[in-house]
């Protein structure tokens, strides 16, 4: 059982940070509340929603060809802004 294992590990290694993860839902969350478990991770928070692609695709100059990159037309100042990534 996770609580017994966490208690045993904390007794041997008091500074150890213990995370409970996997198979934990909002219905079983309270079963993991313990002074021996420091972190509880729930995949449930993200598993029931559609994913959104926030990826950044960088196209090299040789891939631009006729001014189109993966179907998107580049504007007149594309060459100047292509390297201007503000993070």
TrEMBL record:
Domain Quinolinate phosphoribosyl transferase C-terminal: from-to ranges: 5-57
Annotated Gene Ontology cellular component terms: cytoplasm
Task: Respond yes or no to whether keyword Transferase is given for this record.
Answer: yes
A single MF term (Gene Ontology): nicotinate-nucleotide diphosphorylase (carboxylating) activity
Give the pathway annotation: Cofactor biosynthesis; NAD(+) biosynthesis
Q: Name one Pfam family in it.
A: QRPTase_C
Q: Which UniProt keywords apply?
A: Glycosyltransferase, Transferase
**GO terms under biological process:** NAD+ biosynthetic process; quinolinate catabolic process
Q: What's the family?
A: Belongs to the NadC/ModD family.
What protein name applies here? Quinolinate phosphoribosyl transferase C-terminal domain-containing protein
Q: Which organism is it from?
A: Chiloscyllium punctatum (Brownbanded bambooshark)
């Amino acid at each position: 059982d996770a609580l017994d294992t966490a208690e045993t590990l904390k007794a041997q290694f008091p500074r150890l940070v213990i995370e409970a993860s996997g198979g934990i839902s909002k219905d079983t969350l309270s079963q993991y509340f313990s002074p021996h478990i420091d972190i509880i991770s729930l995949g449930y928070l993200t598993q029931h929603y559609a994913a959104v692609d926030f990826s950044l695709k960088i196209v090299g100059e040789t891939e631009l060809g006729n001014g189109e990159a993966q179907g998107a037309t580049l504007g007149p100042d594309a060459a100047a802004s292509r390297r201007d990534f503000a993070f």
